Amino acid sequence: MVEGGRGRPKNAAHSRHKRPRLVGDLATLALVFLLMGAVYFLPPDTSLAEAERTGALKVCVPQSYPPLVTTGGEHPGFDVELVSEIADRLGLTLSLNRSPEMGKDFNPRNWRVNRAQCEILAGGVVASVITRSFLETVETGIETGWAIVSRPGQSLGSGLRVGVYPGLGGLDRLGLGSFLRQRGLRLVLRQSVDALQAGLEAGELDAVITESLSAQQLVRAHPDWQISWMPASLGRYPLSLGLWKGDLTLKRAVVAAMDEIEHSGVLAELENQYGLSGIQTVAEFTP
Amino acid sequence: MLGALYAIWLREVKRALRDRGQLVGGVSRPLLWVLIMGIGLNPYFRGEIYGEVRFVVPYTYLQFLFPAVIVLNIMYTSVQSAVSVIWDRQFGFLREVLVSPMPRSLVLLGKILGGTTVAMLHGCLVLVLARFADVSLTPTEVLQGLGLMFLLSFALTSFGVILANRIRSFEGFGVFSNAVILPLYFTSSSVFPLDPALTRAQTRVVYPEWLVTMVELNPLTYATDALRGVFLGFNQFDPSLGPIILACMAAGFFAVAVWEFQRA
Q1: What does the pLDDT average to over A117-137?
Q2: Using CA atoms, how far apart are residues B214 and B184, in angstroms rounded to an integer?
Q3: Cα separation of A268 and A273, whole Å?
Q4: I want to staple A180 with a disulfide (CB 3.0 to 4.6 A). Which of A87, A185, A197, B143 is the partner?
Q5: Is the pLDDT of residue B27 over 70?
Q6: Total domains, chain A
Q7: Which residues contact B160 (CB under 8 A, 6 or more apart)?
Q8: Could you say which of A208, A234, A260 is where a domain stops?
Q9: The CATH number of the domain where A55 resides is what?
Q10: Would A230 be classed as within a structural domain?
């Protein structure tokens, strides 16, 4: 009988190899897998190297989007402090680019944010499938979605006057409108969060609905008001930092820095500081 | 019978492990496709202005290519492992096995399972590149992926045996298998996506109709899509289609291979 078709008698092959050949075969295979694994250490792009060359981490944020981005000096906002921590850990200087166009239009193309202006976008980037078509996303641990705020003891039933400020967050406003109408609630559109607050304070509105971060700010000003998520069927999304698609090395470095920030407890501290510890309840609507 | 099945399976696996050429091919293919082509084309699909990309899918080109390279590595290894049928026929091993009391279908099953194991191993070589391609895998996803890879490997090894039964020389098999593998690979939506955001009519405006039809008729399109669904969480087609088509391919090709093997 021949071995492997090479015309070499099998027992001769065995006498030449003291250890079983299968061990050698498996060792070769293990070596091949190790070599393939080592490919991870090859940088697939120049995004991190470029940031390190300039020494700056350029971040685009909207002019103001409390509590993620504020104009206050001591508390510049959750996302601003977060990217500052990330820049520190990467050994880079944070260069903040406040763009007045960001968030002013539904179509992000009209914000005119490009790669030359910044490496990271922050201040309300939602980690949805649509966003991921344009940007790489690194989640920050904060969730967004529709939230409802009402005075204490207010039950949510048919006939209530509900103020709605959809904002520019890109949440599903058609779905919300249809949900509220199906339950017989009367919708009153308002132009700002301040207008919602005024309506609820004056008793013109029984409850108000807006994006959860703004809703949490309302409750910070009125701790007696109750806040709940709208049902999950209306969508709830993690917020994130946005990086340019294809910037893999920078993304890896940012993810590693985020892990460090989370494990050191800094992330939890920031969440507490900006009142972003999360909404605990989901609204229940009575027929 | 199980002992005989195991012996044939083990022989196929050992033969493949000792074939350094096959191993080099299994390593070089993913390296070339993921490392060179993936990284080479990645900048052309990256974002420059927020809201503007050429590639409106929620992953990078490297991630998009990754499941397709698994399919490519499995295809080559599966079909080439069937060359052992020609080898065994030439050197008389097949005659020796066929005169044994073992049913021919079991002999074939042993060979196909051996080829399947080796093809899966080559598929796993690509999986090692997952972190590099920024594809994060959970244990459940790996298990689901291995299940799909098994079905694909089994189906394609059976398909390779059908080819090997019709071709009598090594040279002819090499040329023929390349002529089958590469067209199947390129028309499986492996290197370009059929944009899932577009309707069927819109897709036929972006791409020529003959190409869309070829992609839709190619069963490997659904295998690639199923692996994309598992590893990237994104499907271009109905997610249930992939596993169903793979199972049908595995059963169908194996049945034909057994029928032809028993006639030969």
Answers
A1: 85
A2: 9
A3: 9
A4: A185
A5: yes
A6: 2
A7: B78, B79, B80, B81, B82, B83, B115, B177
A8: A234
A9: 3.40.190.10
A10: yes
Can you tell me the mean pLDDT for B152-163? 92
- Say whether residue B47 is in contact with chain A using an 8 A CB cutoff: yes
CA distance B112 to B161: 8
Same domain, A132 and A198: no
In terms of pLDDT, which residue wins out, B154 or B89?
Answer: B154
> Are residues A151 and A108 part of one domain?
no
Q: Cβ–Cβ of A133/B58 closer than 8 Å? A: yes
Q: For residues A180 and A187, is the Cβ–Cβ distance under 8 A?
A: yes
Count of A–B CB contacts within 8 Å? 111
> Looking at the structure, do residues A150 and A261 belong to the same domain, yes or no?
no
What distances in angstroms separate CA B202 from CA A15, A70, B197, one per listed residue? Answer: 67, 43, 9
**pLDDT attached to residue A120:** 93
**A110/B51 CB distance under 8 A:** yes
Closest CA to A237 of A285, A170, A186: A170
Shared-domain flag, residues A69 and A141: yes
Q: What are the chain B neighbours of A244 within 8 Å (beta carbons)?
A: 46-48
Q: Which of A210, A234, A258 is the last residue of a domain?
A: A234
Best mutation target, B33, B50, B60, B235, to test chain A (most A CBs within 10 A): B50
**Is B30's Cβ below 8 Å from some Cβ in A?**
yes
User: Do A229 and A151 share a structural domain?
Assistant: yes
Are A200 and A256 contained in the same domain? Answer: no
CB contact under 8 A, B131 and A40: yes
pLDDT of residue B126: 92
d(CA B135, CA B120): 19
Structural domain boundaries enclosing A165: 146-234
| d(C-alpha B225, C-alpha B230), whole Å | 9
Q: With beta carbons less than 8 A apart as the criterion, state whether A81 and A142 touch.
A: no
Nearest residue on chain A to B28, alpha-carbon basis: A36
Q: Do B125 and A110 touch (CB under 8 A)?
A: no
B154 or B56: whose pLDDT is higher?
B154
pLDDT at B218: 93
Q: Which residues pair with A136 in a beta bridge?
A: A243
Tell me the ipTM for this assembly. 0.71
In sequence order, the β-bridge partners of residue A90 are: none
Q: Do A71 and A94 reside in the same domain of the chain?
A: yes
Per-residue pLDDT, averaged over A243-268, amounts to: 93
pLDDT greater than 50 at residue B20: yes
Instruction: Supply the pLDDT for residue B99.
Output: 74
Q: Could you tell me if residue A7 is inside a domain?
A: no
Q: Is the pLDDT of residue B182 over 90?
A: no
Task: Calculate the average pLDDT of chain A.
Answer: 84
Domain identity same for A255 and A140: yes
Give the one of B49, B59, B60 whose C-beta lies nearest to A114's C-beta: B49
Q: Closest to B132 (Cβ–Cβ): which among A22, A40, A113?
A: A40
Q: Is residue A279 part of a domain?
A: no
What own/partner pairs with CB < 8 Å and gap ≥ 24 does B134-137 have? B134/A248, B134/A251, B134/A252, B134/B60, B134/B62, B134/B63, B135/B63, B135/B66, B135/B231, B135/B232, B137/B231
Mean pLDDT score across all residues of chain B: 85
Contact A245 B53 (CB under 8 A): yes
